[in-house]
Design brief:
mainly alpha, single chain, rod-shaped, Methane Monooxygenase Hydroxylase, Chain G, domain 1
């Protein structure tokens, strides 16, 4: 009887893990699309309002991903796997652990690989977005300095009795 319960627990852990991975992939794809929109807002449109809206939406997705991470912790603890190191990144390496635990499952390796690929894509895209935003804000700072200098020069000229006409 205990062996049957253990088998059901393992089956439930596998099903829950697959569901969490699929949800994670879906959220990550949404986040990746938002990063593309973010780059477009910065580079093509220079639209700070649009960028702010996108950043707010990204924060919502990131919050949902954090809830998923909490779901991983809960699932692992239910399966008797505890965070003994109190690592905030627990369950780091969980994909490898799942593959070892369920070597015969045919769907799991592809899900884990897709999850890793999209995560890597997000990191690279986010780095690109940060670099583009840095360039954009640097350009804005330069324009602001030029405008301030122009206003200061005009004000000085006017104080000295010059005519702006």
């Amino acid at each position: 009887m205990q062996k049957q319960e253990h088998s059901r627990l393992q089956d439930r852990v596998l099903a829950d893990a697959k569901e969490l991975i699929q949800r994670e992939i879906k959220l990550c794809k949404t986040l990746r699309a938002m990063i593309s929109r973010e780059l477009e807002a910065i580079v093509l449109n220079g639209n700070m309002d649009e960028l702010t809206d996108i950043l707010d939406s990204k924060n919502e997705i990131i919050s949902q991903l954090q809830l998923l991470a909490d779901g991983w912790r809960d699932m692992l603890e239910q399966a008797g796997i505890h965070n003994t190191s109190n690592s905030p990144n627990f369950p780091e390496g969980f994909g490898r652990f799942l593959l070892e635990l369920y070597p015969e499952d045919e769907e799991l390796p592809a899900l884990i690989e897709e999850s890793r690929e999209i995560a890597g894509s997000i990191i690279r895209a986010e780095d690109d977005a940060i670099n583009e935003l840095d360039k954009f804000t640097s350009g804005l700072r330069s324009q602001m300095v030029t405008r301030v200098q122009g206003k200061n020069a005009a004000a000085s000229y006017a104080r000295m009795g010059g005519s702006m006409i």
